[in-house]
Amino acid sequence: MKKIFSLMIGRFQPLHNGHIALIQSVLNEGKNVLVAIRDTEISENNPYSYQERKRMFKVAFGNKVKVIKIQDIEEVVYGRKVGWGIREIRLSQEIEDISATKIRQNSKLLK
Fold first, then answer.
1. Phi-psi region of 30 (alpha: psi -120 to 50; beta: other; left: phi over 0)
2. Fold entry, domain 5-110
3. What pLDDT is attached to residue 19?
4. d(CA 81, CA 52)
5. Which sequence spans correspond to the domains of the chain?
6. Which residues pair with 38 in a beta bridge?
7. Helix (H, G, I), strand (E, B) or coil at 95
8. Which residues sit opposite 8 in a β-bridge?
């Protein structure tokens, strides 16, 4: 039987505890997770390469999630009755307050 996945799209610059909690919540439902990492150009806001981010997922999840690279995107669009849904998962306020921007800023202060 072919696997069906829950898709998560993001930059993951870097992968952090908020991302991990979100993905783990879907894994805990017994679902397969496909992470689509946006192929962003290296910049101040995107300091990690695709390979570095892919390794972050390997460290955090081993083989529990499938990771692919996608072109950088501006939006996700869909037509009617496409056969899949869009779902927002709300986590604790403490987890939702985690910010990759703040993590990147703090890492600059440590250098």
1. left
2. Rossmann fold (3.40.50)
3. 97
4. 36
5. 5-110
6. 70
7. helix
8. 35
Q: Which residue has the tokens 């703040």?
A: 102
Under a CB-based contact definition with an 8 Å cutoff, are residues 10 and 39 in contact?
no
> Which candidate, 29, 25, 23, places its Cα nearest to that of 65?
23
What residues have CB less than 8 Å from 12, skipping those under 6 apart?
A: 19, 35, 37, 48, 53, 56, 57, 100
pLDDT of residue 41: 95
Looking at the chain, the whole-number percentage of residues with pLDDT higher than 90 is 75
Contacts of 9 (CB under 8 A, 6+ apart): 36, 38, 70, 73, 76
Whole-angstrom distance, CA of residue 111 vs CA of residue 1: 49
Tokens encoding 95: 């987890």
Summarised one tens digit per residue, pLDDT across range 49-96 is 999 999 999 999 999 999 999 999 999 998 888 888 899 999 999 998
Which residue type sits at 100?
A
